[in-house]
Amino acid sequence: MAKKYNISVEATLEVIGGKWKCVILCHLRHGKLRTSDLKRHMPNITQKMLTQQLRELEQDGIVNRISYNQVPPKVEYELSEYGQTLGTILDSLCAWGELHIIKEYGDKFAVLEDNVLNNKQGELLPGAAE
Known about the structure:
Elements: H1 9-16, H2 21-28, E1 33-34, H3 35-41, H4 47-59, E2 63-68, E3 74-79, H5 81-84, H6 87-105
Antiparallel strand pairs: 1-3, 2-3
InterPro entries: HTH_HxlR, WH-like_DNA-bd_sf, WH_DNA-bd_sf
Organism: Paenibacillus tritici
Protein name: Winged helix-turn-helix transcriptional regulator
């Protein structure tokens, strides 16, 4: 029997929902990363959870796992062509999150980690209203 959804957003959340998947996808939007790179960018995720989330995203066709035949073994992850279609959604989530942080805390830099995903020039992200 085919799965039934109440509304289509349920299908989206089934694939990218949860605490970590969107964060992983945002990092992968900047290019291929090894598991260790993702772990370094996301220090609060456990190795087990990172591995599980990557496997689920791979099963759903959102990320590609690239294994290199070398010693020591090397594995990288990248957004698949299908995963790249989530770009607009991820941009919107980031923009809304930034507006929410500013509303709640006033200064986004007081609560945002200093990393490659956070805009350091003090400008709003694309799609964010002032």
